[in-house]
Amino acid sequence: MRKTLQLISGVALLLGLAAVGAGVAAAQSPRFQFGPVEASNVVFVQTDNVSGNQVVAYDRAPNGTLAYSDDYALLFAVNAGSNTIYVFRVRGDRLALQQVLSSGGTFPVSVAVHGDLVYVLNALNSGSVQGYRIVLGLVLPIFGSNRALGLDPTETPQFTHTPGQLAFTPDGSQLVVTTKANGNDIDVFGVDIAGQLSAAPLVNAEPGTVPFAVTFDAAGHLVVAEAGTNSLATFSLSPSGVATEIDALGSGQAATCWVAAVNGDFYASNAGSATVSEFRDTNTGLLSLAGATATDPGTVDAAGTASGTFLYVQTRTSGIVDEYQIATGGSLTEIGSVVVAGAVGGEGIVAF
């Protein structure tokens, strides 16, 4: 079953799930109040339609085909065209809008959550990050938390010369930001106990790599999709924020931009090849390439279920979400696909 929820118009909308809490703030009362309820067997997808963005909820059948904070059950939508963040309460496959908040900058593209901390990445006007904290179920801006990235605002094209993603390290002590081709840097901020960031990031230059999407392995190593070299790379992070490369391995594909971690394996989306590359990591940071699986054209974001049984991959060309079953060894078997009604591109997916 497919359900939709209308959002404001905007150029883009990305989804992020609060893993242990989340939100963003304005002192307004929620229109609905849901208790702490986990979603299950649901996949949420955004449409990116400029005439009216939607979040589409698909119920997941037992065979995997499509028909947050555990404490807070919140889902976040970052509205780039409106410079806002939407915070939804999740109840099963239903969403209720709780808050609409300023992103603290221009063109927000990514959101990260750790505990009761939330940070948002704004891509334009040199780039910035803005922090928030969850207080009694509401998300409130952290005074003085905005940090400028100091990127060159004249660099073009916009898509490859704006920041890519931000993410907390597993222990929440650092916040990582990728700059893509606008510096080819991995910026690392320290995070203190009050949720404030260091005054400036430690900038790790990675010339020519175009660092894009990030995740972490089970040992806490940083894993980066590098679009410039069509590779996946792993790094150790020192307490001061120095990123030391452990390994880098080419995908053999084109436009390797996104990466999803599932059960210790990594699935890198190759937008230029219409494939997903499968990488293995034994938690040492050393990578091996297990092959590639075909998708529909325009491969972008992907998400795996918490059980590690299924992977869902967004494709931009026709708004299709491809569905795969993950075997014990990590290989993928296509089990179907759905065309998301009204999807125009679409980068933002969460699977339960």
Overview of the structural elements:
It contains no helices and 29 strands. The chain folds into two domains: 1-146 and 339-343 and 348-352, no CATH class; 149-294, YVTN repeat-like/Quinoprotein amine dehydrogenase (Methylamine Dehydrogenase, Chain H, 7 Propeller), CATH 2.130.10. With 352 residues, the chain is mainly β. Helices cover 0% and strands 49% of the residues. β8 and β9 (117-122) form a beta hairpin. Strands 8, 9, 10, 11 and 12 form a five-stranded antiparallel β-sheet that branches. The two termini are 15 Å apart. It has strands at residues 2-6, 13-17, 42-46, 54-59, 74-79, 84-91, 94-102, 108-114, 117-122, 128-135, 138-141, 147-148, 166-168, 174-178, 185-190, 202-205, 211-216, 222-226, 231-237, 243-250, 256-262, 265-270, 275-281, 287-294, 299-304, 310-315, 320-326, 332-339, 349-351.
